[in-house]
Amino acid sequence: MSAYPENYRYTKEHEWVRVDGDSGWIGITDHAQQELGDIVYVDLPKVGAKLEQGKTLGSVESVKAVSDIYAPVSGEVVEVNEALQTAPEKLNQDPHGEAWLVRIRLTAPDELNQLLSAADYQNYIGA
Questions:
Q1: Which element (helix H / strand E) includes 106?
Q2: Does the pLDDT value for residue 113 go beyond 90?
Q3: Taking CA atoms, which of 3, 9, 36, 59 is between 20 and 30 Å from 127?
Q4: pTM (2 decimals)?
């Protein structure tokens, strides 16, 4: 299996979004977590926050650096992955699965057309 699920869309800033109906789950890619190293803290928006495509939605802190996370698509935060507050290292273990960051209600689904497919993302990072 590819490290990058085919049903996800990706950004050049190394975020992903998985869409089901009008909901989108957002996370960081396996490539991002490898570049960051051991993740020690995650700062996420609150439920109800409005996200705008390309704008900062939070940050990830690793032993190396603090990196901003950008919204791949616009929407309203309807759920935050609380597990990451006590176990941010899950981002290193399962970045495309259990370690999603936020679930949003999409407000501009057409923005998905601007994102990369799994194959395009892998070409972009040279995988």
A1: strand 102-106
A2: yes
A3: 59
A4: 0.96
